[in-house]
Amino acid sequence: MRELEIMFLGTGTSHGVPMIGCQCRVCTSEDVRDKRLRPSIQVRSADRTIQVDTPPDFRTQCLREGLTHIDEVIYTHSHTDHILGFDDLRRFCDLADRTMPVYGSEQTLEDLRRVFQYAFGDPPHPRGYVRPEAVTINGPFQLGDLEIHPVNLPHGRMTTTGLVFWRNGRKLLAYYTDCGEVPVAALEAARGVDTLVLDALRHKPHPTHMTVAMALAAAGEIGPRRTFLTHLCHDLGHADTEANLPENVRLAYDGLRIEI
After folding, report:
1. How do residues 134-180 score in pLDDT, each as one tens digit?
2. Are 212 and 202 in contact (CB under 8 A)?
3. Which helix (H) or strand (E) is 66 found in, with range?
């Protein structure tokens, strides 16, 4: 029996793949795994459906996968490629006729209130509007049968929130997107996890994202059973890149579902 299911709704970088105006080999590829919407995942346990980030493509992702229910949303940070689908949460509020718990760091929630000021207030908006219930992440927290441990990850001038999902004392999933490195504390938090998901933008160094080589080094330190790379730009063709990865490291792709 599965303990957790992870669905990759989007695995691309902020531009998405194909990128506007680009005719490179990957942007014109016919391999569906090279078609990458902006990054988000959905995590499902026996009693919980948790959305991580709502990118600009969120509505398209929901329609593609037939999504109809979300219990909570966790935001890793407030960059536009992770939050601009926020307003599409209103449909999930209407379907369940309730507010939507929205988790994030103090800075992330402050940014959400500024960008989507119409949605926040007391009392919550009626049907037809997003009805967010903001919850500040300031340490481990429980969602149903899952315990979630947040970790700080450097991302240029911003600190993003990495997430390690535990159940019954077992580390099931570490989701570390949008980071320029994995600091020691984050390595320790994920060490021995079953499934690791890591930022790996491209091969060439970038000031705010990890390279494939950096992600492989971090995975070697953490020692998961398997690793998936995400937040991929058009420099990385799926088939060619995977051919040169270790056996237990794969590229994630849009629509991929994995079970633990």
Report:
1. 999 999 999 999 999 999 999 999 999 999 999 999 999 999 999 99
2. yes
3. none
How many domains, the chain?
1
The amino acid at residue 213 is A
CB 50 within 8 A of CB 43: yes
On whether the CB atoms of residues 192 and 185 are closer than 8 A, the answer is: no
**208-247: per-residue pLDDT in tens?**
999 999 999 999 999 999 999 999 999 999 999 999 999 9
CATH number of the domain residue 204 falls in: 3.60.15.10
**DSSP summary character for residue 19:** P
Separation CA 126–CA 211 (nearest Å): 45
Please state, in angstroms and rounded to a whole number, the distance separating the CA atoms of residues 194 and 108. 28
Q: Are 74 and 49 in contact (CB under 8 A)?
A: no
Domain span at residue 49 reads: 5-259
Secondary structure (3-state) at 122: coil
